[in-house]
Amino acid sequence: YEETANAGLMAACREVAVSEAVRLYIADLAAFTRAQEGVQLGASTRAALALMRMCQAFAALRGRDFVTPDDVKALAAPVLAHRLIARGAFLRPGAQEEAVQAALAAAPVPAE
Fold it and tell me: What is the distance between the alpha carbons of residues 4 and 60, in angstroms, rounded to a whole number?
C-alpha cells in the first residue's frame, strides 16, 4: 500500500504547474552558482530539476497547483547548497549556502 500511495503523491506533485518564467529562474540560479569565483562545481541540471520537483511538492503541500518564485527562494539553499563544491579560500562552513544566496541576489526574479 505504501508504495502505491507514494507513487500517487509523486504523480500529484508532478502535476503542479511550473511556468516557463519560473523554470528559467531555476535554470538561471543553477547557472549563477556555476559562474561564481569561489565555486569549483556549481549546481547541475539534475540539481535544478531536483529544485523544481521540490518546489512542486512544496506548493502542493500548501494547497496550490502552481509554483511561485517565492517557493524557489525558500528552497534554493536547502536543495542546492549541499550539491556545490567550493574551492580554495572558500572552503569553509557556510560557503555553499553563501553561493546560493549570491545566486538568488543575482538572478532576476520573474513577475508573479
Answer: 18
